[in-house]
Amino acid sequence: MNIFIHRDGENYGPYSLEQIKEFLNNGTLNEYDSAWHEGCADWLPVKAIINSLTALQAEAISVR
């Protein structure tokens, strides 16, 4: 999943979910920065994107 970040009027990315998690861990991003991925209606906080994509990954694994 390609995730894009919007900060200070600029868009960055695409990044993977793993990269976004690492950016949060090392302080490059904070959980309230804006993020978007294909299928999102609007920009959301990074925290919301991570929560939804992590849940989707877990669901996909459990379906296998």
In words, what does this structure look like?
- The chain is 44% helix and 27% strand.
- The chain has 64 residues and is α+β, with helices and mostly antiparallel strands.
- Strands 2-1-3-4 form a 4-stranded antiparallel β-sheet.
- Strand 3 and strand 4 (44-45) form a beta hairpin.
Major beta-sheet overview: 4 strands, antiparallel
Helicity range: 40-55%
CATH evolutionary superfamily: GYF domain
Strand order of the largest sheet: 2-1-3-4
Please tell me what the overall shape is. Answer: globular
* Beta-strand content bin: 25-35%
- Using only C-alpha atoms, the radius of gyration works out to 12 Å
Number of domains: 1
Mean pLDDT: 90
Oligomer: single chain
The sequence of SSEs as H and E is EEHEEH
Summarize the structure.
With 64 residues, this protein is α+β, with helices and mostly antiparallel strands. It is built from 2 helices and 4 strands, in the order ββαββα.
